[in-house]
């Protein structure tokens, strides 16, 4: 009677051992199944999520690409301002002379240095080439168009001033060529500024000559037409920042 319970308990324990799964040794587990902590590996650092600053860098880089155009906008406005100034002064003085004086009239202003001498010139500046009026009309039109086309490449304030003076002077005399007598494209330019032993000229001629002198100076000084436009993302480095970089 006493042996039956003992035999039953032994049989129950043996049954549990058969049902329990055997533990696998660590060496039998494949390496891919063992989790590893995130961090740098032999092939390189672990990938990280983009920070907000890096995420914002993409639109900032796109905006920086358009900054050179905005940097040149003041230069184009400078060119336009000097061109308008030269053109308006030229046309106003010509209108005043042709309205108050007769052809060939001389009025002393600062004798014997300066006087007004009203003439109509069929040639170029300082009465050069009076027999080829149509040629100068074409040249002045080409100069004006060329300046307008190249204006977007400006990178220097002084080049903007020079191009503005040249454009204003060319347009001033071109207006006379196109709309004054005797015919369209063959009009005579109004000249009235007279100096001793010098050709008679006008404000447009003075603007053109001044621009040529300025262009020669800029060329001799080695200042390029495009100027030295700094990169849009360039920022000055402080001495402290430079020292920390060297360290």
UniProtKB/TrEMBL annotation:
Annotated compartments: Cell membrane
EC number assigned by the record: 3.4.23.36
Family to which this protein belongs: Belongs to the peptidase A8 family.
GO molecular function, one term: aspartic-type endopeptidase activity
One CC-aspect GO term: plasma membrane
Native source organism of the sequence: Arthrobacter terrae
Domain of life the protein comes from: Bacteria
Region (Disordered), start-end ranges: 1-67
GN (gene name): lspA
Residues the record marks as active site: 191, 205
Reactions it catalyzes: Release of signal peptides from bacterial membrane prolipoproteins. Hydrolyzes -Xaa-Yaa-Zaa-|-(S,diacylglyceryl)Cys-, in which Xaa is hydrophobic (preferably Leu), and Yaa (Ala or Ser) and Zaa (Gly or Ala) have small, neutral side chains
Listed Low complexity bias regions: 7-31, 39-67
Membrane topology listed for this record: Multi-pass membrane protein
GO biological process: proteolysis
Entry protein name: Lipoprotein signal peptidase
Membrane-spanning residues: 75-93, 132-149, 156-174, 194-220
InterPro entries found in the cross-reference section: Peptidase_A8 (IPR001872)
Family matches, as Pfam families: Peptidase_A8 (PF01252)
Pathway: Protein modification; lipoprotein biosynthesis (signal peptide cleavage)
Keywords: Aspartyl protease, Cell membrane, Hydrolase, Membrane, Protease, Transmembrane, Transmembrane helix
Job description of the protein: This protein specifically catalyzes the removal of signal peptides from prolipoproteins.
